[in-house]
Amino acid sequence: MELPVNRRTFLGGLTTIVASGAILARTGTLRGDGLAVSAEIGGTMRAIRLASAGSDRATAYGMSSKCVLLDGQHLLCSWLDVARQNQWALVDVHGGAIARHGAVGPPRSDNHCGVALCGSPDGAADCLVGAHHGSFMHYRMPGRRERSTWELIQNAVGEAATYPSLVCDGEGTLHLTYRRNTPRPYHVMYSRRRPEDKVWSEPRPLVRAAIPVHTWTTHALDVGLDGRIHLVLNNTQTHADGSWYYGASHLVSDDSGESWRQLGDDRPLSLPADAAALKRIEGDVFHADRTQSREEKLRLPATGPSQYYYCKIQLSNPVIDDAGRPWVVLHNLLRGRADLYRAEKDTWIGTPLGETVRASFPGHQISHMGQLSRHLDGTIEVVLTIVRDDVECHRYGARGTKLVRLLADATGTPRSCGLVCEPDPEGIPDWQPNIQRPGWHAAISRPALLWTRGLNSHTLTETHTNVNEVTTEVWLQLPPSDQRQPCD
User: Fold this and answer.
1) CB contact set of 222 (below 8 Å; sequence gap of 6+)
2) Quick one: DSSP state of residue 295?
3) What is the four-CA torsion angle of 169, 173, 174, 180, rounded to 10 degrees?
4) In whole angstroms, what is the distance from residue 328 CA to residue 315 CA?
5) What is the extent of the structural domain holding 187?
6) Which residues pair with 475 in a beta bridge?
């Protein structure tokens, strides 16, 4: 196919941006079809460059999937480009060819407005085009390749909304959580849309943040084979001495979002629940290594990618295994560590991942925003960002950031750990991972992975620049072609 060549080149061409003499985006060798392909990663994985004009948050905010299996043989991928337009591509999971591509929705306000995708029982894909303190837009694409166009379903979903997390259950009901920023404190909101509904339900507040200032809730949903909906969220709290505590909590709904409770307690919560009163995944003790003193917080910059509140970005997405157990990665960005938690009946059990990472990559620590998926054989896959020990682990998009894929068994025990790709020789970070996730209607032998290669604009300016011209690459890693993606 003939590809456009301009500032927003979709697949072909080389897009770089130069600042202070440094190239901020790099590309591999181009094939005749405009794709850049790396050497096979890990001996069998295949990597394809989907775009060379992504934004500095092209695949960020992993509360929802940005790659879903659409018709059994095509992976629908999405990212936000430098002009803040959400782009999509249908990629053949066997050969890696691009079947179709285009844009969905209008250009958005800033780099926080990527989409949330999920697959539906009828083979279609639902998409919420993101917003930053605004309203989402709901689009739908039928599952048949010959009709791969987006239909606008609802023009405005939610208000004062950011960070959509979207899942679909076995009945075809869509479930959504998002962060509402007004009035403060922030709330995690919930809405749903059943197949027979004409519009989304009126959003309901689920959880009220425990702090009255700006915070990341990094809320994320998943639905199990039993129909239960699971929600994980950050639970940052303050103490009388001015210290901050970085924890996380979990809620579950047994009745398609009508009521919510916590593990070990059958009583429904009174909504909105106060985050400070919720049980926490890491336990109900305030752990010293998850507590940041007032003095430590004041030593960090007030703005830019190293400011203290990046310590709050500490949860992966959840996944639910065949036994109905929720799993999640809980980061500790004060210590450069992370734990893989799973719920056994009413108890959360954590497996430290730091030692495995250090054994494989000496001199490195774990950074933020891991991702989780599950293989058809029950293997749990974790994607982590890692940085050198001499880099602040909470620094968002630090130079030299690398991606690793870690496999664990049903007890959470790590089996293997390896790099996603060779590090960029100039330290351009590989980050913002978004892994393909299984659904009850779309089990996967081995998940695909999207990520961004490029700099955070904050790294250049040390200020907030959510509207900027920094250009990045978007890469897709596909499993071996002989590991076919099961469908219905």
Assistant:
1) 167, 229, 230, 317, 318, 319, 320, 326, 437
2) H
3) -110
4) 7
5) 18-478
6) 49, 451
Average pLDDT over residues 308-323: 93
User: Over pLDDT 90: what percentage of the chain?
Assistant: 79
User: Which tokens belong to 94?
Assistant: 């066997």
Alpha-carbon dihedral sign for residues 114, 11, 474, 42: positive
Q: Is the dihedral of CA 156, 158, 162, 166 positive or negative?
A: negative
> What whole-number distance in Å separates Cα of residue 111 and Cα of residue 331?
24
Burial class from Cβ neighbours inside 10 Å (0-12, 13-18, 19+) for residue 399 reads middle
390: nearest Cα among 369, 365, 353: 365
**How confident is the model over 355-409, as pLDDT tens digits?**
999 999 999 999 988 999 999 999 999 999 999 999 999 999 999 999 999 999 9
**CA atoms of 325 and 340, how far apart (whole Å):** 13
User: What residues contact residue 255 under an 8 Å CB cut-off, 6+ apart?
Assistant: none
Query: Cβ(147)–Cβ(122) under 8 Å?
Result: no
Model confidence pLDDT, tens digit, residues 439-452: 777 778 999 999 99
Asked if 119 and 69 count as a contact pair (C-beta separation under 8 A), the reply is yes
- Is the residue at 4 inside a domain? no
399 to 79, 199, 424, 429, 474: CA distances (angstroms): 21, 44, 10, 5, 17
Single-letter residue type at 425: P
∠ CA 420-426-430 to the nearest 5 degrees?
30
Burial of 418: CB neighbours in 10 Å, binned 0-12, 13-18, 19+: middle
Q: In this structure, which amino acid lies at residue 423?
A: P
What is the DSSP-derived secondary structure letter of residue 368? S
Of the chain, the end-to-end C-alpha distance in Å amounts to 30
Give domain status of residue 405, yes or no.
Answer: yes
Output the pTM of the full model: 0.91
* 357 backbone dihedrals φ, ψ, rounded to 5°: -65, -45
Measured distance CA(150)–CA(139) in Å, rounded: 6
For residues 125 and 140, give the distance between their C-alpha atoms in angstroms, rounded to a whole number.
6
Mean pLDDT, range 308-329, rounded to an integer: 94
In 312-370, which ranges are E strands?
A: 319-320, 326-332, 337-344, 347-352, 364-366
Contact present, 253 and 259 (Cβ < 8 Å): yes
User: Domain for residue 5, yes or no?
Assistant: no
Domains contained in the chain, number: 1
Query: Are 17 and 471 contacting, i.e. CB atoms less than 8 angstroms apart?
Result: yes
The two structure tokens encoding residue 1: 């196919």
For residues 104 and 127, the answer to whether their CB atoms sit within 8 Å is yes
Asked if residue 9 is part of any domain, the answer here is no
Q: Which residues are paired to 132 by β-bridges?
A: 162
Q: Is 70 left (phi over 0), alpha (psi -120 to 50) or beta?
A: alpha
Report residue 208: phi and psi, to 5°: -100, 125
Q: What is the CATH number of the domain that holds 471?
A: 2.130.10.10
